[in-house]
Amino acid sequence: MELYSAKDTYEEARLIAAKIHRAVREEGFRYRDFLILTPGREKEPVISSALRLGGIPVFSDFPRPMTEKPVIGFVLSIFKSLELDTEEILKLTESGFKRIRDFERPERGVRLMFQSEVYRLRLAAEQYGLSAEDWTKDWSEGAEPRKKLNPLENIRKAVIEPLLKLKQDLEAAENGKEMSRVFMNYLFDSENIRSTFIARSKAGQGGETDTIETNEAEAEEY
Q1: What is the domain partition of the chain in residue ranges?
Q2: Whole-prediction pTM value?
Q3: N or C: which end of the chain has fewer CB within 10 A?
């Protein structure tokens, strides 16, 4: 048994990574030979990050609520945005998953929002105190403060119009199965959620191969 003293969790994580590297490189161990036990889940993100940065494959079996998964949080954010609450809309655009139709360059189809667009919406909302009604009006004309937001009209339209249609279609659905179909169509068409799964998986940030291959029928059932 060996004991090490570290000033904080970050140094502790670096020591663990260095110890594993040395054992694999010099003593013939394999990465799969190591098990790291912690007193709680608080240290897990720091240790996992240090291992991944060091090129060490890592798997954590700490149970996590579904709502902590980024994609699930994004889906919940869509539902919260349907009432057009300004803060919920801004959280949706700031999720890192929000895709919009590019009105200025239609050949792009649906693309991820640019950070500059997200920032400008946040700034405008805080500066003018946008209400739910403001989000439904054309910002290229009309009374204050909307006419001052003319440069953001295409962004507003790209974010809000799909949400309004989704809300309308959900309200018109006759049963739960129909509501599920409506929402899945929205995810696959307006949000291009398959590309999100693929991108997250390639980045090692969540999503598994079988998730990427899920077709619309299977996703609706899920």
Answers
A1: 9-53, 66-221
A2: 0.61
A3: N
